Amino acid sequence: MTMFYSCEINGKLFEPGSSYQTLTTKMENSSYLSDKLEKWNSELARGLTPNNVILSLYILTGLLGNSTVILIYRFKMRGNKEERYFIPFLATADLCGSLVCASFGIALNMMQAEFNNMHLCKAWWFFAAFTTFTSGFFLVIIAVQRYLKVCRPLAKQMTLKWKRFALSLSLLVAFIHAVPMVHFYGSVPFPNEEEGIVGLRCSRLKTTNETGSLIFGGALVLITVACIVTLICLYSKIGYTILAHFKFSKIDCKPDTSSEVEKTSKIDHSQVKIPSSNGPLSDTDDGTYSVETYNTELSESLPPQKFIKPTGKTLTTNTKRERKVNPYKSNAKRRKERLNLRVVHKFTLMFMLITIIFLICYIPKVIIMLLEARNSKFWEEFSDSARAGVLFVYRMYIINNITNPIIYAFLDEQFAKEIRSLFKHCK
Hints:
Strand content: 5-15%
Number of domains: 2
Structural class: mainly alpha
CATH topology of the largest domain: Rhopdopsin 7-helix transmembrane proteins
């Protein structure tokens, strides 16, 4: 007696009596489509091999560079904590950003048409957005701090409490902006009309509310543009102030041949009370000076001069409001003030360069985000080679996370010194 059993293949139930030939045909078609999809995905991944090599270099460079920055600035360097306070936090955000974003890019390249794990896709988009927003918000905080220190030295500065509050607020705001990524991104259909197959890629969901998706995309672009404009405005004012100070310093360095200077030069030096300069000057361990005197030195562009008459009484006379170097200020004190200003300006220029690289790397990403928000089939319309080029430009923002250690090495002499010392110990 012949017995028939029902069976389930690929989610479809075949009852007793079904044609064996029909069942075999369906199994062959399913296997055929799966093979075609796998072959198509392999071709897409092969075309993105150069992109994967670059992303792997991003991971390696970001890991080594930012780890070294955290190690040296946090545990090795002791001097000038005021100027270097934000550097370890920015390096931590850059480290996480380079690892998460670059590894996410490699995963997307390898699974262009076979990204079937919806939850992994959503989690990766969340962490990529969180690390990216954190790094950008940290740069805004640093720009505000440099603006207060350089442009408004007499105003209230950022205390340690406010610095910690600003960092915590940045993390919170970055988290709030990254959470919606879980709702608007996931595995979406990726059709190949020529081959008659449909894959899955990790991208913006098309099944969600289109209006809400556009509002969210517009909000992200608006926030990014606001950060960029804020950075440009703040550092433009900072750069103008620094250039004006350098111009003023050159004027001060010129010899004064006015009659007043000639008169004062005729005064008996034994009757002039010159401030003592025997005390120690260095406030730090790295050969630079503390920047705490930066506020007072700008408010006292020309301190009063003191003359002693033969009777022993001291006469104080205010100088003109013209900004001239006080000839009776000790050379040591003037040297200390110049070093203070040089430290402030050097670190400001360093952060300014970091911000310029940030803007160069993020502006192309913002443009592509705008185009992607307007066109739901943005990525599908490119050829395979064109898509590889656009993906490279889109992920250029990761360069921002890996170049900062190089900038520190060139512009922070103490950091470069510690790097050389570390290499000597490793040999």
